[in-house]
Structures are given as structure tokens and as C-alpha cells.
Design goal:
The protein is of the alpha/beta class. The protein has 20 helices and 16 strands. It folds into 4 domains: 124 residues, Rossmann fold; 149 residues, Rossmann fold (3-Layer(aba) Sandwich); 70 residues, Orthogonal Bundle (Helicase, Ruva Protein, domain 3), CATH 1.10.8.60; 70 residues, Arc Repressor Mutant, subunit A (Orthogonal Bundle). Strand 3, helix 3 and strand 4 form a beta-alpha-beta unit. The two termini are 25 Å apart.
Length: 475
């Protein structure tokens, strides 16, 4: 049993959460404002606090920040109806245990409170929880998305920003990997330092070492003067290595040494210099596959992948497209002087159905072209110049064989009622489908549920009932 404070200005939310948690065996107290929540947390002894962001007099984030300045070891869960990037990142930065958006699943809330209660017991043995808070943010670094996958990315940014841990961001071209890297940098203690980006695939192999570490005059043919490398330029800030999977194998050895020893030398010099830059890497290919194919060093792979972030392609988060459209049109109007005020429903539907092989970058370019050339203030399908989504190919291979075998077996069985056909076929393909997606997502159950279009709790129940083994590291 945990002692829980629920703070929300909506009476219905207080009643629903309070009833559900009392039924789960917890001792619950409810308040209707941020001021009352702060007073209760200051004077009382609570294990877990559930705080709404928007409340009278003090927001949930303000209460969270103030209680973190005390020695109270309470675990805080933030809830809000506005699931924006800023809310998610700020909540995690300020030390929230987790972040929930309304409407929420009560089973998920109960499970989350149970985990928070366990965390509270652990924190009592190691001292109070502290977070270093900053409201630093670079204008223009805006990640958009309310999908479960994007919310998890926002949470990870909030958690990892305050440390110097190395991050590797994986995802297709155009998914916004550099934006994520910039968001991490500008929410970190290094925010006032430089953010230096280097595309490893855009620099010739024989010049990449010099670009990274710099060189002395006369170090090689054409080196007519000393040059400062990106590691020096990024000192005190962040070095973003884009397309790190394309780095030559011989240079990977030198990068590994920098990560291990935190020092380097310019090309042609024996002087050892300290590397004071946080490393964030990104790639549009599978580094695990590159390791298996001996194109990427395994030891460097593990050094880089301290905190992995997987960015889903736009086709896997189509629900974010309407919000992205509004965001880009606002940006385009401000930057290009256009005056697009609306998009026709059929045009928006066309954009949602489009496969977007170029991901978010392609969507932005499409809207930019349409906004500049459109004759009116409302975008129509004729303005967009995009085609309908290509229908998926017919089933083939092992999945089709599985379906044929299952159907044939049912048809041959005279004792089986016809009404069982659908359930039996679904059972025949459900397990391999879930296993395949879990394998492709590295065991990420939240993303797997999003791809399947089901609730995460439903996925967990199916995993248990079907006896599916989640890949190692999945959660």
C-alpha cells in the first residue's frame, strides 16, 4: 500500500483516480489546486504524487520543481490533456517519474503507481531525488508528435539531457534525427556551448580525420596552415556525428580512443588535447547489421549506444501528420511571407494516406512548394502534387503459406464449426506477427503496440497468453 496524493482541478478526474487507487489498496488524498498540493506534500508524508500540469495558482510542473527543492522523496507522476513535446520534456527534466496524457487507461495508471511505489522504497535507501532544472530552449528546435513513439522520445530526451551520456539516434533519412540531437543539447547543461554537426558521409575519406581532429601546417600535401577540428570547435558543447555508420573503419579506431580516453591529437602533432564535447551520433542504417558485416567496429558500437533512440518513419505515425501540417504551414508563412490559412479536408486526407518515403523532410518540402505556388489561401489536392498511397502487395511467402495451411486444415475438418474459421486463422498468424514486429523494434512494446494499432496493455496480455518471449532489452 502506498500513500498517494492526487492533484487535479477537475473533480471527475480526482474521483476516478481516487476510486481506482483506493480499490487497488492505496491510501489516497485528493486536492483541487497546485497550492493545496504543495502544502499537502510539504506537510505530509506521501509516497507518490499525481499532479495535473494545469491547475489554479500553481501548475503541476511548478509544484514538482518546488518539492524537488526539499528533502521529500515523493515520486511524481505528471498528467495533462496537452501532450506536447515541451510538456513531455519539461516534466522529465524536472524529475517526474513518468508522464501520462488524458484520457488514460486506469490499468496503466495502477501499474505505473505500483512501479512508482517500488521506486519510492528504493529512493529511501539512496537519499533524495534531485534534478537540475533549466528552462533553456533554442527557438526553432520543435519536435512535433502526439503518438506513443514520439512521446517516448520526448521522455528520453528529458531523461538523458541532464547527463553527458553518449546517444545514438537511429532512423530513416528525413525523420528528424538532427532535431532530436539539438533538443538534447539545448535542454542540457551544455546549452550555452556550441552545437557542431558533421555529416560523416559528406566528407571525403582522406579529409574526414582532419575535419574531426584538425591538423598542423605541413601535416600532409595541401595543409598550408593549422586547422582546428570539430572536436576543438565543439569544446564545452555537443558534437553531432551524422551518418556515423559511413565512417571508414580505420577512423573508427581513433574515434573509439577519443570516447575511451577523452583526448586526441591533431593530424601531424604529438600534442595531446582534452576532448570536452558530448557525442551524439546518428545513422540511417542498422549499426548491428554493419557490425555483423564487419563494416563497423563492435567495441565502438557499444561505446556509442549508451542511450539508443529509435525514430519511427512518418508512415508509422500517420496520426501525427495533421499536427505536422499545421506546424509547417505556420513556419512557412512566417519564413516565406505566404498566407495559407487552411487546408481542405480532402487535401489533408491525401497527405495522411501518402507513404512519404522521404519522411518529415519530404512532407515539409511538399507543403513549402504548395504554399508558394497555391493561387488561394486554402491548400487543395491540386496544389499538393502527391499521389495516392500505393496499395500493399498481395500476401506471399511464409505468411501466405501459413494462412493457406490454416484455412485448408479448417475446411477439411467437418467437426469444426464454421464460425471458428476467423478465430482460428487469426490465432495461426497472430503469434508470428507479434514476434516479427517485436524483433524489428528491438523488443520495444510501446512501438509494437502502436504499429499493431492496439493498446499496450492488450499487447502485454497477448504476449503472456501466447507465451511470446520478448527480445532481450525490450520493455
Amino acid at each position: 500500500m502506498a500513500r498517494i496524493l492526487v492533484a487535479d482541478d477537475e473533480e471527475s478526474i480526482r474521483m476516478v483516480l481516487g476510486t481506482a487507487l483506493v480499490q487497488a489498496g492505496h491510501d489516497v488524498e485528493t486536492v483541487a489546486s497546485g497550492g493545496d498540493a504543495l502544502a499537502a506534500l510539504t506537510d505530509g508524508d506521501f509516497d507518490v504524487a499525481i499532479l495535473d500540469i494545469r491547475m489554479p495558482d500553481l501548475s503541476g510542473l511548478d509544484v514538482l520543481e518546488r518539492i524537488r527543492a526539499t528533502d521529500k522523496p515523493v515520486i511524481v507522476i505528471v498528467i495533462t490533456a496537452q501532450n506536447t513535446m515541451a510538456n513531455a520534456i519539461e516534466a522529465m527534466k524536472r524529475g517526474a517519474f513518468n508522464y501520462l496524457t488524458k484520457p488514460f487507461d486506469l490499468d496503466e495508471v495502477r501499474a505505473l503507481v505500483s512501479r512508482a511505489s517500488e521506486m519510492h522504497e528504493l529512493t529511501r535507501t539512496v537519499g533524495r531525488i534531485r534534478t537540475e532544472v533549466g528552462s533553456r530552449y533554442e527557438p526553432g528546435v520543435t519536435l512535433v508528435g502526439t503518438s506513443g513513439a514520439m512521446q517516448e522520445i520526448f521522455k528520453t530526451i528529458g531523461r538523458v539531457a541532464k547527463s553527458d551520456a553518449t546517444v545514438v539516434i537511429e532512423g530513416e533519412s528525413g525523420t528528424g534525427k538532427e532535431l532530436i540531437a539539438r533538443a538534447i543539447h539545448f535542454h542540457s547543461p551544455r546549452w550555452s556551448g556550441p552545437f557542431v554537426a558533421l555529416n560523416c558521409s559528406a566528407i571525403p575519406r582522406d579529409l574526414l580525420e582532419s575535419e574531426l581532429f584538425g591538423h598542423e601546417r605541413g601535416a600532409f600535401t595541401g595543409a598550408s596552415e593549422r586547422r582546428v577540428g570539430r572536436f576543438e570547435t565543439a569544446a564545452g558543447g555537443t558534437l553531432f556525428l551524422d551518418e556515423v555508420g559511413d565512417m571508414p573503419i580505420e577512423l573508427q579506431v581513433k574515434l573509439l580512443r577519443v570516447l575511451q580516453e577523452r583526448e586526441f591529437s591533431r593530424v601531424g602533432s604529438t600534442q595531446v588535447m582534452k576532448a570536452n564535447a558530448r557525442i551524439i551520433a546518428a545513422t540511417n542504417q542498422s549499426l548491428e547489421r554493419a557490425v555483423r558485416e564487419q563494416r563497423f567496429r563492435e567495441d565502438l558500437f557499444f561505446r556509442l549506444k549508451v542511450v539508443p533512440i529509435m525514430v519511427p518513419p512518418l508512415r508509422d505515425r500517420r496520426g501525427d501528420i495533421p499536427e505536422l501540417i499545421r506546424h509547417f504551414l505556420t513556419k512557412i508563412n512566417a519564413e516565406m511571407g505566404t498566407d495559407i490559412t487552411a487546408i481542405a479536408p480532402e487535401a489533408e486526407e491525401l497527405l495522411i494516406r501518402h507513404p512519404w518515403p522521404g519522411n518529415v523532410r519530404e512532407l515539409e518540402n511538399c507543403l513549402l512548394r504548395a504554399a508558394v505556388l497555391a493561387p488561394g489561401r486554402t491548400l487543395t489536392p491540386e496544389d499538393l502534387q502527391v499521389s495516392e498511397a500505393t496499395p500493399p502487395p498481395p500476401l506471399s511467402g511464409s505468411l501466405a503459406d501459413t494462412l493457406r495451411s490454416a484455412v485448408a486444415a479448417l475446411v477439411r475438418d467437418p467437426e469444426r464449426p464454421a464460425k471458428e474459421l476467423y478465430a482460428a486463422v487469426v490465432a495461426a498468424v497472430e503469434r508470428p506477427l507479434i514476434e516479427l514486429i517485436l524483433e524489428q523494434t528491438g523488443g520495444n512494446q510501446l512501438r509494437t503496440a502502436d504499429l499493431l494499432g492496439i493498446n499496450r496493455n492488450t499487447l502485454r496480455k497477448k504476449i503472456t497468453s501466447l507465451g511470446i518471449v520478448v527480445p532481450r532489452g525490450g520493455k
